[in-house]
Structures are given as C-alpha cells and as structure tokens.
Design a protein that fits this description.
151 residues; alpha+beta; 4-stranded antiparallel β-sheet; 9 strands
C-alpha cells in the first residue's frame, strides 16, 4: 500500500519545535533543548514578585522571591517591551507582591506582507482583575535569560 499523497503536506503542518506534552514552544538554552513552560515553571512558577528594576536599554527585570530574575522582552523583537508600553511605576504597581500563577503561549503576527511570526510566552499573575490586565506577553528570550540574581 502506498503512502497518502497528503502525508508530506500534513507533516509540514505539524509544528516540530513544540513540546509534545503540552504544545508550548521549545527553547534552546546552553546547547540543550527544553520545553519553555517546564523550564520557566521549574525556576519561577508559583513565585512572588518582590522587586522590579530597569536594566540596560530600558529593559524591565522581575525579581522573584526565590532569587531568580527574568527580563521582560518584547514578543516581536526580543528587546525591551514596546508594543504595549507601560511605565516602570505602572509595572511595579501591577506586579510587586503578586504570584506568578501560570503561563500561556500564542503567536505574535506582524502587519507586513508576508507577516513575520514570533512565538509569545505569557506570564499570568495573581489578582482579581480581568486576566488580560494581569498577564504580560514576552518573547522566548525572557525564558532563555532567567537567571539567579547573584549569577
């Protein structure tokens, strides 16, 4: 029996760089490949934000209670957040004292033709506000750059 003529097309539609367990994007860190959500959850999941600092080039860094730091990077370019601009004081009011409750993922699609596509990694924090108001979308670069504060 011959294989279906659709098989090569269907195989192209299957994402190859996502975690088979949960569909989150895979990330390469230090030459190793990890499921982005499993990696981030193991380091900062369930942690309380205890500090927020402005780093190089206006980039905002979150400091968690366990000593891990995570930069907030733009989903479209991996640099400082600029798509939904929030000031440093606004982000401090929004996040300090909140717990990182969960993660989501999606895709940022540019407006040019053909559109540029980048995976989005979203951080969802505790609170009573609508979920969209306490969720920050970042690039996978944020996950790659989670580090211990003293590292």
């Amino acid at each position: 029996m011959s294989s279906s003529p659709w098989l090569p097309f269907l195989q192209q539609l299957q994402p190859r760089d996502v975690c088979q367990r949960d569909g989150f994007p895979l990330v390469e860190i230090g030459g190793e490949t990890y499921c982005s959500v499993e990696y981030a959850d193991g380091l900062i999941g369930g942690q309380k934000v205890i500090g927020i600092a402005e780093g190089d080039g206006g980039q905002i860094d979150l400091l968690f209670a366990n000593g891990q730091m995570m930069p907030l990077t733009c989903p479209c370019c991996g640099g400082a957040l600029h798509l939904k601009p929030r000031t440093l004081p606004e982000i401090r009011v929004l996040l300090i004292g909140r717990t990182l409750e969960g993660f989501r993922h999606g895709e940022w699609v540019g407006t040019e033709m053909p559109p540029t596509r980048h995976p989005i990694f979203a951080l969802q924090f505790s609170g009573t506000e609508d979920r969209k108001d306490r969720t920050i979308e970042v690039s996978l670069e944020s996950v790659r750059r989670i580090v211990a504060r003293d590292a």
